[in-house]
Amino acid sequence: MGERVGLEVSLAVSEAVKLARADVIAAYPITPQTHIVEELSQMVADGDLDAEYVMVESEHSAMSACCGAAAVGARTFTATASQGLALMHEVLFIASGLRLPVVMAVANRALSAPISIWGDQSDVMSERDSGWIQLFAETGQEALDLTIQAFKIAEDRRVLLPAEVNIDGFTLSHVVEPIVIPGQEEVDSFLPPYEPQVILDPEKPVTMGPVGFPELYTEIKKQQNEALLGSYEVILEVWDRFAESFGRKYRPVEHYRTEDAEILINMAGAMSGTARIAVDMMRETGKKVGLIRTRLWRPYPFDEIRNAVKGAKAVAVVDRALSFGGQGGPMCSELRSALYPLAEKPVVTSYIAGLGGRDITVENFQTIVEDTGDVLANGPREEYKMIGVRE
Amino acid sequence: MAETPGDLFLPRLLPPQEFFAEGNRGCQGCGAALVMRQVLKAAGPDTIVCNATGCMEIISSPYPETAWRIPWIHVAFENAAAVAAGVESGIKVLRRKGRYHDRRINVVAVAGDGGTADIGLQALSGALERYHDFTYVCYDNEAYMNTGIQRSSSTPYGASTTTSPSGRESIGQKTQKKNLPMIVAAHEIPYLATACPSFPLDLMDKARRAFQTVGPTYLHILAPCPTGWRHASDLAIEMGRLAVETGAFPLYEVVDGKLKLSMKMETRKPIIDYLKPQGRFRHLKEDDIKEIQRRVDENYEKLLRRAELDEGG
Ligand SMILES: Cc1ncc(C[n+]2csc(CCOP(=O)(O)OP(=O)(O)O)c2C)c(N)n1
Ligand code: SF4
Ligand SMILES: [Mg+2]
Q1: Residue to test with chain B: of A56, A91, A200, most B Cβ within 10 A
Q2: B312 class by beta-carbon count within 10 Å (0-12 exposed, 13-18 middle, 19+ buried)
Q3: Which ligand 2 atom sits closest to the C-alpha of B31?
Q4: B74 in A contact zone (CB under 8 Å)
Q5: Could you give the CA distance from residue A19 to residue A16 in angstroms, rounded to a whole number?
Q6: Which of A115, A147, A252, B263 is the most buried (most CB within 10 A)?
Q7: Residues A148, A19: contact at Cβ < 8 Å?
Q8: Whose CA is closest to A314, among A261, A277, A352, A378?
Q9: Same domain membership, residue A364 and residue A302
């Protein structure tokens, strides 16, 4: 069985990549992702990880090199954040369009301007529609486990899509947590070497990345979307298999004290930890509050979300990103549309908090729940509220 | 390497196999398609091409058709070198782990002048500096042809393009052609060469040498473009020949830092011979042509001196 150690979460991600025996790592440093790639460089330098580490000159080239390496059948990893992810934007869509199972960790960070090295989830939300499988971790253990699982999901022949593990910058990436490091043999049997279906090989020449004319483009995109939607079942399967091997269970949405809850908080990432504490405190004062944490963001778990909110009077969605000039929070708008077709549905309220490294405190969660209670009593007001703003 | 009546035998000296298929969607008389054809003949079947967006990518891969008889990948416009770096690194590690065969494979990045000198320069520089074992082929048709003949930094002085049009107040392209081979040479790679498909044996010799060299190598190949240069489609070979023989596009190699001219021309044809048949230069006045002649001479003399210096040393 695995060994439980105190480890910085970034290093746990690197450990996962090592345990997954990644073949090619191409990455460019950016805070708060740096510890992940520094550790991987060291592992390669020490011979602990037999991989090619390509020290590219930009994130655009990092993702491009990952595409090239995956196209010859290498298990491929990169990590980035914020401006780096934004610089990759163009190639993210190509990785998914070419059906290349690249795995990436994103240490979520705010987008410039003003430049901010601190955490929020604007970076990944801007890449929401890039066709990647997108997962959010709350804890270090989860960051490690999801990274290992991401390879297995991405490389599954029914999927063949890139996958991304989001870990909040600093609040998760830089904290030390007790983490069980699985044994190499266990991981090897869970995740055998990547067996690609089609590769660039002179023995069987193929053309990858051709021009798609209007007669075919739509069909190709439909196919790609079906693969992403279809990955849902594979993800559940991989999680079952993981639970069998490692004893830790995962599902698309995590429930915390949701039984009989009248107001549910919905959010993703590390700040859910604070939300739990707030839920406990509010429960002590008799408030029926619970938390549903989104782990799987793409493909969106429509049915799980619909089931999770059954019986609740309201869902308060907390987004660490702001869709300027729109409906406010991207996670909220997704949940709202998921619930819209239901005959009976809870009231949905939207809150933006934790931008650019601002904390979301227990008090903030209490305010959010009180405000939602107010909406329940007095009816809807503004589209969304920004929480913890200094006036 | 001079082209003589003996050239009748030339076809017999070329490998018969075609890896860049006929029937692609290139314009009639496309010089860049000839570049592909000749480079791949030299490369042979054990080759992987990473192609940047541009004419050669567009004309060759209208799904579900393909002109490529070797494995080929297109990812984007500015990243052919980075994709090639990934391919090379992937093969290297998989081979080490026994998951890819052992035959030597030519990893080749192919891009136009725009994809090389402008938007792709960073990725190219990175890949050269990291010393990947690959060959970068820039086919230089001296503008962004695929998007409609816009200027690039490789467009020569005085050429009219759709974004450097000649007009009452403008000569057309006002800047001088970026000296990309020398920028590449500054990376101190083991081999680079300039070439032109009008001199196929020379081109293929250089390509073979590039492929055989371990480490990053670079071929800068002039690709006459009847559509963009606005000359008759049966003149592409002639235009390439004139570009070389006037000194506008000198052929040379830089081997381990030493420059060697592929043909030394004490006397050269006047530049007007090259400019005249091309519509992109039609607007030039006598003084403009004199100025271009002066620049060509100056550049050529500079190159001669460098070659002499390198030979002497
Ligand atoms: C990021 C990006 N910017 C712009 C384009 C549009 N574009 C495609 S090909 C091209 C020009 C290519 O020029 P060059 O590299 O010289 O190749 P050529 O078409 O001349 O063969 C441009 C501007 C693009 N595809 N991607
Ligand atoms: S525009 Fe020029 S380079 Fe492009 S296919 Fe036509 S002739 Fe060839
Ligand atoms: Mg061009």
Answers
A1: A200
A2: exposed
A3: 8
A4: yes
A5: 5
A6: A147
A7: yes
A8: A261
A9: yes
Would you say A316 and A263 are in contact if contact means Cβ atoms under 8 Å apart? Answer: yes
CA distances from A387 to B48, B91, B304 (A): 54, 51, 70
Cα dihedral A160, A270, A306, A150, rounded to 10, equals 10
pLDDT digits (tens, 9 = 90+) for A320-350: 999 999 988 999 999 999 999 999 999 999 9
Tens-place pLDDT, residues B162-185 = 999 999 999 999 999 999 999 999
Quick one: angle between helices B31-43 and B236-245, nearest 10?
80
Rounded Cα gap, residues B258 and B186, in angstroms = 12
Question: Do A189 and A263 fall into the same domain?
Answer: no
Query: What is the ipTM for the molecules in this complex?
Result: 0.97
Q: Are A94 and B70 in contact (CB < 8 Å)?
A: no
CA neighbor of B141 nearest in space, from B179, B196, B206, B184: B196
Instruction: Please answer whether residues A8 and A170 qualify as being in contact, where contact means their C-beta atoms are separated by less than 8 angstroms.
Output: no
Asked if B151 contacts B173 with a C-beta cutoff of 8 angstroms, the reply is yes
A274 close to A362: Cβ distance less than 8 angstroms? yes
pLDDT value of residue B14:
85
| Residue in A94, A206, A216 nearest the CB of B71 | A206
Structural domain contains residue A20: yes
Do A260 and A377 fall into the same domain? yes
Whose CA is closest to B74, among A6, A5, A208, A337? A208
Run of H or E including A152: helix A140-155
pTM, full prediction? 0.97
Domain that holds residue A345: 254-386
Nearest CA to ligand 2 atom 2: B225
d(CA A331, CA A318): 8
Contact call for residues B251 and B201 (beta carbons, < 8 A): no
B5-312, CATH topology level? Rossmann fold (3.40.50)
User: Ligand 2 site: residues with CB under 6 angstroms?
Assistant: B 26-27, 30, 32, 55, 59, 141, 145, 225-228
> Token digits for A222?
């439909």
pLDDT digits (tens, 9 = 90+) for B33-83: 999 999 999 999 999 999 999 999 999 999 999 999 999 999 999 999 999
User: Do the chains contact at B86 and A66, CB–CB below 8 Å?
Assistant: yes
| Shortest Cα distance, chain A CAs vs residue B8, angstroms | 32
Burial A151-170 (b: 16+ CB within 10 A, else e): bbbbbbeebbbbbbbbbbbb
| Residue at token pair 């070659």 | B307
Count of domains forming chain A = 2
DSSP assigned state of A242: H
B81 SS3 class: helix
Q: Domain ranges in chain B? A: 5-312
| Dist CA B141 CA B154 (whole Å) | 8
- C-alpha angle A156/A161/A166, rounded to 5°? 105
